[in-house]
Amino acid sequence: MHPFAYVAPSTVAEAVAELNKHGDRARPLAGGTDLLVKARANVWELDAVVDIKNIPELMTLTVNGSGLSIGAGVPCYQVYDNSEVAAQYPGIVDGASIIGGIQVQSRAGLGGNLCNAAPSGDGIPSLIAHSAVAVIANASGTREVAVEDFCTGPSRTVLESGDLLVSIEVPKPAANTGAAYTRFIPRNEMDIAVAGVAAFVQLDASGKNFESARIALASVGPTPILASAAGDSLAGKPVNDETIAAAAALAKDAATPITDMRGTVEQRKQLVEVLTGRMINKAVERARG
Amino acid sequence: MTTNSPSKVHVTTTINGQQHELLVPGYMSLLDTLRELIGLTGTKEGCLDGNCGACTVNIDGRIVDSCLVLGAEVNGKEVNTVEGMATPEGLHPLQQAFLEEAALQCGICTPGFLVAAKGLLDNEPSPTEGRIRHWLAGNLCRCTGYDKIVRAVQKVSD
Amino acid sequence: MVATFEPKTDYKVVGTRPIRHDGYDKVTGRAIYGADVKLPGLIWAVCVRSPHAHANIKSIDTSAAEAHEGVFAVITGADMPKAESKLVDLGEGNINFKWASNKLMADDKVLYRGHPVAAIAAIDRYTAEEAARKVVVEYEVLPSVTNVIDALKDDAPVILPDMVGDDLGEDVTNTNMAAHVRHEFGDVAGAMASAAHTVEREYNMQMVHQGYIEPQNATATWDEEDRIKIWTSTQGAFPARTQIAGILQVDVSRVKVTPTEIGGGFGGKIPVYFEPLAAILSKKSQRPVKMVMERTAVFETTGPTPGARMIIKLGADANGKLTAATADIWFEAGANPGAFIGPAAMCIYAPYEIPNTRIDGWDVLVNKPKVAPYRAPGSPQVAFAMESAVNELCENAGWDPLNFRIDNASKEGTRRGDGVLFSKIGMQEVLEATKESAHWNAPIGDAPEGKVRGRGIANGYWFNIGLKSSANLAVNSDGTVQLTEGSTDIGGSRTSMAMHVAEVLGIGAHDVRPTVGDTESVGYTDVTGGSRTTYATGYACWIAANNLVDVLKERVAVLWDIDKDDVEFNDGSFSSKAEAQKTIGFKELAGKLDDLGGPANSTGSVDLESAGDGFGLHIADIEIDLATGKSDIIRYTAVQDVGTAIHPAYVEGQLQGGSVQGIGWALNEEYYMQDDGKMANSSFLDYRMPTTLDLPMIETVLVEVPNPLHPYGVRGVGETPICPPIPAIANAINDALGKRLYNTPMNAGSILKALK
Which of A171, A181, C444, C603 counts the highest number of beta carbons within 10 A? Predict the structure, then answer.
């Protein structure tokens, strides 16, 4: 590991200035559960890490009438331990509850999960399904990027040198909505998704028909994927095995996995279909309350 | 400590109830800070990537893998390690239960399991077997098959 | 040394569950493991490792690393003493020092990925790592082979050009085949031809790792009179000393090995890795040098257990009696010979009485780390093949798999596959205990919707070993006894040693204070492995304790002014044969020793030819999600003949731990090799050992058929329990799905594929 300096600014402006000073040789430090592993393996050669956990707005979790705001440094446990988040955003909680073990969840957060941009990032599909937006600061101000557009490839994002993720903004779900995420792993915890599926559904007042849906996938492409056709296929359709199976088949089509040590193309595509069906059903169940 | 480190960080921290003032190289893990700077070698290194839990310590009431924390990050925080579990009055009930239930064989994972289990019982005194197994999934043991570890934690549960 | 004993039943200490003596240090963090060793002036070292699985080293430039601030010493293959090519027996495997040396630090060629090519000692670990990146190595990459089929092809790259292979006694050169052995007896061809039922199948298994949580480590000093001191996490201080001295080309008396507490081994900490390198770096730097291995290197470079290809054929008569068996097995040795085909041949047919058998085994070099023992090395592989084939034979013929195992069980006098005849063994007792067990008699229960359940059983066997052990005793004036024994303690064994002594002396387990000795404080003792420690070192402790009784009888004779032969000892008390009212307890006598001739000490040692065989049977219940292939073990029981359980809690622990290692091997663990010879999953994350959440409680049934070769009837118990899980799970999967898997790991992907 290349020796690096540690700085802990207390404002976004200071943090951005520190990042700008070192360019690609500095990284923001949130939970550290990916950063320190990559630095130790010399994947990244760093001169400085910029600890963002002393910046109040990056450590704030807010749930209110307009939605959920997750500061970039908020660890997973604060997300799933928050009863309001758990009640209103169960799909996001599904993801936050399975990143690493308890020790990792004390440190790792959804912001870091997003910036790490692993195709298997368990926190990301539900954010996509919820139409969440990433707020990014740099020296010239802030900008917003839809989470579905945030990751550009394995370990690659829209963030440029000097950019800092400030928060993830999740719009408040309308009435009769529900969401769920699951992944397939060979063990029961402490594993990387072979495939992961998030579903977000909005039902009509009767609870018998889909008004809209968004399906997002993990570990079956170079980034987490929004499976638009799968979600769109449900709009206006009745909730039944047939429509759900059709959406699951479309999700399977949207998956572009590779064969590696974690699974084969065939296995992953089958898993996407199976998990999509299960997650739509679970989201429907939650939407019906 | 090292000859070519960038500037060191001044850290004031409470470890097992005792205040420490340290100069920590920016890149040094909390694990090495404990083991190499302070001499608390009860916290063990197993993998250095957060997948075995042997280095589990407690920071401000939350368990973490100390290999994935920088020493510089614990400024102003309270760190508790396995060395802080027993008191002059005796072992922590979990330590006693691990001995009585033969919940350790080689013992290298034991400090991590003890700190992790304490983190559970401090907040949830009556966990189910399933909850215990879920909470401890971040701690690997290769000797015991976990049976006696889970039983030891159950023994201390209300 | 061979003696036989009548079983005893009225034990006072044996069979109890005292708290282990080293437990307090281990639950408080005080225990000193290898990485915890601190010495004045200590510096750290790391290795520079090959990114290629097979390559010639064209050049190494260490100048920039040497110039790096904080660096004390740099070594390469040129700094390694040139050892002669010679085989030395280490108890659970042999070693050739030339190859062993070259395995630790490449000379002119790297043989596996991660092979060290240089090592650097610096003021601290971070500095050493930074300097290591400045070593420039130019490689000529060679084609590599990572499985036995490719390795034996005519055009395969030859890994060790100077190796002479042994093909049934014939020398062969220019090959990756290190050895081909055969064991055969009876009329195999005739019996197979006349069998009413036969089954023939091929099985393949990927290499797996021991997976101990503590990485390899070593700390060394090399002083001005060429005395080398080593502190290390090892399964045997003396065998480590033999290896270190052999690799460094010095007399064994120049090397002192102090075994630290050891964070798991399972066989993998019998070979040395860092010890000689740290010693040479210490000599160069004149400082104590410590090395701790990174986890990736533990996977890539330290002893896994062989991957295997196996073809097995069984024949049975119409009445369900096995009549013939053949097996051809190819095991991966890694980059040096030694793939445990001998033990495999000893184990494969052991649970069964089969009159006509043959086994051919091949020891094959591949560009992977040299294998090391892993809990019953060779036996889990052949158990997977044999026990799967037995069940398939039963399924085809309509026989009950448990009754079939009972009908064909080996017993006293049965001939093992390598020709050895069994003495008193407990296979039949294990099978009867299984039939009566709670698990076997409980229904498996209904699976939830979308899932199915299945139950499987399988036998397992390990022969256990004896070998050399030593122990010393000294009486304290307060009536306690110091025990120094030579077996490093991986799982609570020092308490079992103390219990042997306490039982003889009629004192409590905690009246004996056991210490694991270094190589200058106790006599030669072989490795903690082979399931020999409680048996052989316990035996040595028993002898030492009886010798101590003898010494103390002399003191009593002085006290009472009678002849030594007139002193009796029973249940912790000495008495006079002539005057029964004259007695003195052990503790009281201990307080009087100063007036009766001073300190009372004793020693005991053994060199045991045989050990007493270990048989077990496991029952596995599995539940499988038909849509995803995900499986969960929902109930698991290990039944085993343990001889006599000295400390039953730690005997149960051995059965539970072995079972779970086998479960991991069965379901998920593997070396997933890329085409370029790189292990793709060299982290705990992707290697996927079982976590707490992947398992139920592991039930145990301790069957006690006392071993007549040990004074208390002890049998080794540690190895046997890793053998049944893999086939038990294969049989359970078959029971659940009606599909049989012939390759490990039997992961979700394989199950989904089988369901297609």
Answer: A181
